[in-house]
Amino acid sequence: MIKEPKRALAPKGAVKKQSMRTVLRSPLVWGALILVLLLSFAAPMVQPILPPYVVELLPDKTNATAVIGWLFFGISAAGAIASVFAGRVIGRIGLQRVLLISAIGVAMFLIPMGFVNSVIALAVLAIVMSLFGGFLTTSAVTLLPTVVTAAALSSMFGLYQSVQALSAQLGPAVGGIIAANISYEAAFFIAAATLIFLGLPMFYIFKRIAAVHKVVEEPHPHQIEKSVDSQTPSTGR
């Protein structure tokens, strides 16, 4: 039989609480989350626009269902392929360079999408934009472990998923409103402008935050154990 300890070596839930406190009080974390939100907000803005835009570009009485399906397949496949190779590219040229180049690439191919005259041109631009988007998403995820300790990763990724969900829902809503009230062209242009004039400045703000603030360190497990021992009254055997 294995002799069970009389008490826990650390208070129950202490690591989880400490990790969440570390995440919430770190300026690096908030800078990274705002950066991810602004960088990932542009591409979802054009998602609700693509199907009616394709219908408008096709000749009259043309069934656009298959065309739209293949377009979204190409966009998804391009993003998936880019994500596979993103790690190798990040390792060669650096995370910050990939993040910056990817954001500029997405914006550059968003703008001309609103001025095309054919579905083929739209598909080419959308697929290339998705390639840059795959690199952008992967580099944003890779950024997260650099701003927290290992014990806080689960909390950090939870916050990241919340930010991504907010971006995925808010982006199409804003893009649809712009397209309905102004035009398709305006939606593409505003999406690119959001990325350039909000995302890129936030990138440099985050770099300045990272230069000033450091990752908040978690206490070592032995330190937690000593803290518990000092708070536990002696049995006086």
UniProtKB/TrEMBL annotation:
Pfam families: MFS_1
Protein name as it appears in the record: Unannotated protein
GO MF assignments: transmembrane transporter activity
TM stretches of this protein: 66-86, 98-116, 122-145, 186-206
Record membrane topology: Multi-pass membrane protein
Keywords annotated in UniProt: Cell membrane, Membrane, Transmembrane, Transmembrane helix, Transport
InterPro entries the UniProt entry points to: MFS (IPR011701), MFS_dom (IPR020846), MFS_trans_sf (IPR036259)
Residue ranges annotated for the Major facilitator superfamily (MFS) profile domain, each copy included: 28-237
Location(s), subcellular: Cell membrane
UniProt entry tagged with the keyword Coiled coil: no
One annotated Gene Ontology cellular component of this protein: plasma membrane
